[in-house]
Backbone:
């Protein structure tokens, strides 16, 4: 049997578990990722500001800024910031871990987005509480779909 490009690409997708059927996560997948982060706790809206462009031409490089209101003292600080994107193949995009030595709870980065979607930022505080903020964006040329 000869292996052409199509057979190779399809077999690579099957081997990695990424097929056209599950190329993008669903809202249920994102909710499951959030539940895994939160455990048995609830996230409260507020204290977290997530800024992403409302319209992006290309999902391969989307700028994002997350800031959390926190004094960042040894007894009251942000331990982690988790980013969850509903329409990516893997909804838990990235987690940043902080300490009081960070001085400010502000993260600026670039992420890939597989489609137009809502992105959530969840802040895990040193007292065990969780806070969240979200933003939606419209992606005209999706990323994360190369299979």
Residues:
């Amino acid at each position: 049997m000869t292996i052409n490009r199509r057979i190779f690409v399809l077999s690579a997708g099957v081997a990695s578990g990424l097929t056209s059927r599950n190329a993008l996560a669903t809202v249920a997948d994102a909710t499951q990722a959030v539940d895994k982060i939160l455990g048995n706790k609830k996230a409260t809206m507020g204290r977290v500001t997530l800024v992403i462009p409302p319209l992006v031409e290309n999902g391969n490089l989307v700028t994002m800024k997350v800031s959390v209101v926190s004094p960042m003292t040894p007894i009251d600080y942000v331990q982690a910031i988790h980013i969850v994107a509903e329409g990516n193949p893997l909804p838990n995009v990235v987690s940043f871990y902080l300490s009081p030595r960070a001085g400010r709870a502000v993260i600026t980065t670039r992420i890939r987005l597989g489609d137009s979607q809502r992105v959530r930022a969840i802040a895990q505080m040193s007292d065990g509480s969780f806070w969240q903020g979200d933003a939606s964006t419209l992606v005209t040329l999706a990323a994360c779909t190369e299979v």
